[in-house]
Write a structure and sequence with these properties.
It is a single chain. Helix content is about 5%, strand content about 40%. The chain is built from one helix and five strands; from the N terminus they run E-E-E-H-E-E. The strands form two sheets. The chain has a three-stranded antiparallel beta sheet, with no helix packed on it. A hairpin with a 2-residue loop joins strand 4 and strand 5. The longest helix is centred in the last third of the chain and has 7 residues. The two termini are about 45 Å apart.
């Protein structure tokens, strides 16, 4: 399926020396009129695929394995959640991999 949108903008403006551009006949010497026209087009191409349905037991949610943080962790350590790790409840959640910003 292919879809598209087209937008056209046309703008006319008159600029010139204040007050002198408004004088009849002589004002033509002191003003400039311009016309600008812009066209924008977006094309959307969609490809459909047939997929097999997944059982709801196989879908993992991003919130699985997370527990609410204790008051101590929330207020003093700034943690928003704890993590279940093999049946034990821990509150040391750390990110793995290259993280952060490099400032030069």
């Amino acid at each position: 399926m292919i879809a598209g949108l087209l937008q056209e903008n046309e703008t006319t403006s008159i600029s010139g020396v204040p007050n002198l551009k408004d004088v009849p006949l002589l004002g033509l010497l002191f003003r400039n009129s311009s016309l600008s026209k812009t066209e924008t087009e977006i094309i959307i191409a969609v490809t459909c695929y047939l997929v097999r349905p997944v059982a709801s037991k196989e879908v993992n949610l991003p919130t699985e394995g997370l527990i609410p943080a204790s008051d101590y962790d929330r207020y003093f350590l700034g943690r928003l959640h704890g993590v279940y790790a093999g049946g034990e409840q821990t509150t040391t959640a750390s990110l793995k991999g290259p993280l952060g910003y490099i400032l030069k």
